[in-house]
Specification:
Strand order of the largest sheet: 2-1-3
Number of helices: 3
Number of domains: 1
Largest sheet: 3 strands, antiparallel
Order of helices and strands: HEEHHE
Distance between the termini: 43 Å
Helix content: 10-25%
Structural class: alpha+beta
Radius of gyration: 14 Å
Length: 89
């Protein structure tokens, strides 16, 4: 059953309802992963602004705090597996 009120544009709930693949890109080293929206929403809430939520995320590789959450697939120059979108080593 659809929600009575659609979520506000620019929130994590809106991205989840879009059905698109969502990426998290580190602002320091440009590492990217497919976002686990449920895990992010547990920490900041579904109504949280996407930009504010990204500022609180920490990169697992360089430990930098601050990321961009986007639906556009990043073009970083690394080859990635087409199935799981992880960079090849």
């Amino acid at each position: 059953m659809p929600a009575k009120h659609p979520p506000p544009v620019g929130t994590l709930a809106f991205l989840a309802e879009c059905g698109k693949t969502v990426y998290v890109v580190c602002n320091h080293c440009n590492r990217f992963v497919v976002a686990q929206l449920e895990e992010i929403a547990k920490r900041v809430g579904w109504r949280s602004n996407v930009q504010d939520a990204g500022k609180r995320l920490r990169c697992k590789e360089c430990k930098y705090v601050g990321a961009k959450i986007t639906v556009e697939r990043p073009q970083v120059g690394q080859r990635v597996c087409p199935r799981c979108l992880r960079p090849y080593d």
